[in-house]
Write a structure and sequence with these properties.
This protein has one domain: 3-Layer(aba) Sandwich (UDP-N-acetylmuramoyl-L-alanine:D-glutamate ligase), CATH 3.40.1190.20. The protein is built from ten helices and 16 strands. The chain is an alpha/beta fold. The chain has an eight-stranded mixed beta sheet, with helices on both faces. A four-stranded mixed beta sheet has the order 5-2-9-10. The radius of gyration is 18 Å and the shape is globular.
Length: 313
């Protein structure tokens, strides 16, 4: 029996979230906003916490600096029953801190810094991520998965052990990669979940169907294009369909995609079919947007199932 249901491999960040930021300065040295908060973030943190709340045995393989920001993130993970024994800590590099500006409609912009470039080597810990039913690559095309050799080493090892491989994507920042730079690795990915902007960037296509085809052509088995408030589009070699989004009073969209991924992976592991798993995942993403912070609104699997049931009525 595997030690973990899901191992998330990705970034751990301390998020400083500014709500209702007014770009007009109050003075030469100051601005106003409705509120500000600090929370643990990053796709690895968000996903592992969400999946633990959904009843999964979750672990996070990531880097944290030996600093207060790292201590805060580790505390938040442990509070939410995520296994933190896989975390790599060092005093040589600081924990990344991101400032996020959230607009009234829930959309956001973020500021990164050089700490986000630190590329730890998850391929050096195969005993951790292969002791699981599934792995989630949190940010394909960004550190630590902006190095084709690192990506290939991780997915090759996971594939050799028969582990399901899920990959989310991010637009490149410090190091530019194309879809063809990772072609060998994409052929080993079971599920990939770019949003519409990311899929457009990587494929050059405008229609979700053609975006999905570009990933399928490179060997990905199942492609989900996230369409925000419009829902998502799924395609594999056997079927293709659109799935509408759940209605939600959006306050903050931070982490919605990570909660979506947690729902998708957890229900897939439980044996759900793809429509059922995607419906559950969409409900997780919708719930996430109803509060400030990626790990605030989602409480447990029962909450998600109640939302799914309410939509069917």
């Amino acid at each position: 029996m595997s030690k973990y249901d899901i191992v998330f491999i990705g970034t751990a960040i301390l998020d400083s979230t500014i709500m209702g930021f007014d770009p007009e300065p109050v003075s030469s040295a100051g601005f106003r906003a409705e509120s500000g908060s600090i929370s643990a973030g990053g796709e690895g943190v968000n996903g592992s916490i969400a999946s633990a709340k959904l009843g999964m045995r979750s672990a996070l393989l990531c880097f944290l600096g030996d600093d207060q920001a790292g201590d805060l993130i580790k505390y938040e993970l442990e509070k939410n029953n995520v296994d933190t024994g896989c975390i790599v800590r060092t005093g040589e590099n600081p924990t990344p801190v991101t400032t996020i500006f959230v607009a009234e409609d829930g959309n956001r912009k973020s500021i990164t810094n050089s700490a986000h470039r630190y590329n730890f080597h998850p391929e050096q810990y195969p005993d951790i991520f292969t002791d699981s039913k599934a792995i989630v690559i949190g940010s394909l095309f960004r550190a630590p998965f902006n190095d084709p050799d690192v990506v290939k080493a991780v997915v090759t090892e996971a594939r050799s052990k028969g582990i399901l491989i899920f990959a989310d994507t991010k637009l490149p920042n410090f190091r530019k990669l194309t879809i063809d730079d990772l072609a060998d690795s994409l052929a080993m990915v079971d599920y990939i979940t770019p949003n519409e902007d990311e899929a457009r960037y990587f494929t050059g296509e405008e229609e979700p169907e053609k975006m999905a085809d570009a990933f399928l052509k490179r060997g990905v088995r199942n492609v989900i294009i996230k369409l925000g408030g419009k829902g998502c589009f799924f395609k594999n070699s056997e079927e293709a369909f659109y799935l509408p989004a759940f209605k939600a009073d959006v306050i903050d969209a931070t982490g919605a995609g990570d909660n979506f991924m947690a729902g998708l992976v957890s229900e897939t592991i439980r044996g759900s079919g793809i429509r059922e798993a995607l419906t559950f995942a969409s409900a997780c993403g919708a719930i996430c947007t109803t509060a400030v912070g990626a790990g605030t609104a989602l409480k447990n699997r029962k909450q998600v199932l109640e939302l799914v049931g309410a939509q069917k009525e």
